[in-house]
Amino acid sequence: MSAGQQVDSQRRDAQPRRELPPEALAGLRAAFAAELAERLPRLLSISPGSDTGLLQQARRDAHNLASSAVVVGQKDAARVARQIEVCLESGSLADLEGQVTVLARLLDGWDV
Amino acid sequence: MTELSRPGVVTVLIVDDSGVQRRFLRAALDCADGEFDVIAEARNGREAVALVERLHPAAVLMDLDLPVMSGLEAIERIMSSRPTPILVYSAFVGGQRSQNALDALAAGAVDVLAKPGPDDARTIEEHATALRRAMRVAARVRVITHPRGRLRSRGMGGSTPALGGGDRRPLSTPCPEDPGFTGEVLLMVIGASTGGPQALLTVLAALPTDLRQAVLVVQHMADGFIPGLAAWLDGLIPLPVVVGKSGKPLARGTVTIAPSGVNLLVQDDRLRVLCVPPDPGQFHVPGIDATFASVAQSLGPRAIGVLLTGMGRDGAAGLLTMRERGSLTFGQDEATSTVYGMPAAALALSAIERQLPLDQVASALLVAVGRVPA
Questions:
Q1: How far apart are CA B323 and CA B350, in angstroms?
Q2: N or C end of chain B: which has fewer CB within 10 A?
Q3: What pTM, to 2 d.p., does this model score?
Q4: Residues of B in Cβ contact (< 8 Å) with A5
Q5: Which tens digit of pLDDT belongs to each residue from B20-50?
Q6: What's the CA gap between B141 and B339, in Å, rounded?
Q7: Strands B303-307 and B328-332
């Protein structure tokens, strides 16, 4: 990197934080609603007896919901989703149904 | 430059299986006054590899936890067929995921940024700002081809011939407990930032298990990844690797990594350390300058300082203090640095006594402590 590029980069880094535009935030909420509609029913359908493929998909669903919920400000839901993910990773499925129920309750009524 | 690129605009491929994340990443990059142009999105590793081949983006922003083909495998394939700067944007849960992030760096990814978690105090806009800053750095990195299969050799530390690793000659460097110890080098302290994990691996893998000095590493890294870095290095190099703790002395023959969120200071020549809160407004934590300055004060000529690849200036002033107090100082050269920022700043301050290619740093350290012939 040249000295000029470094100065340019430092100048950009010093710029004030920018707000995401309202349409971008609305788009994130819409995307989260779509993701929830796709992933939550799969989580609600699993049980300790579900086959490995379903459990792997459920882990990915929980993982994505945990990260996505933070983006739209649903931090409590993100924590529960993360717990579900950890349970599915470790194979500790005893509390799974209860945690998925809590997650569904926290996100009940979520809409764009 | 790609067919899709415009002068001064960084073309970016976003790779994430979450529609929310893809939208967030696109929105974050779109806020940069046209600096970035998201030319495509991929939902899995296989799509990412194909899109890199077809579109030649200037940079890739990639999650690791992907369906069909993992992010790690996709990085390996991209870096072997069409090397492109890749910034990993990954959720941190710990354990294996942290390990995967370090493996991604070893496979050629430029840096790792953590996705916001539920307990993260930063706002989404602050994450977007951090993302743009990291992307700006990543996009300028010169990347090289990484042969595939490199990661399959995990545990290579045990089989990699370390410089001096097979040397069983009597040690020429006394240790502090030895009768007649006259004040030889006690500590090698190394600072690194962007590109650091790979560079550290190169240097540390070449240090022998019977090293009589302690090794202290300060690596800029996203919160939560330092224990993963320690575990990753521990599995790959001959020396044991631990994370530093306040009150616990640095041990000779051991690599200690400075922990997240604090500055690690060396207090005295018994190598006791203290972890202190960062200075207000300190950008990089842990700070390399703070550690180097404490080492200069405590050890002077009984320490060697090394500043490796990284963006910015952290470490330059501290290394100058070390040199002024009599420490030997090395800096990584431009040709082998992922980002020639910190070593360049140190060179400009005359803080570096010898500038070296990365693959000569370990041998220079060993020569300096009398382990191998000059």
A1: 9
A2: C
A3: 0.73
A4: 140
A5: 999 999 999 988 778 899 999 999 999 999 9
A6: 6
A7: parallel
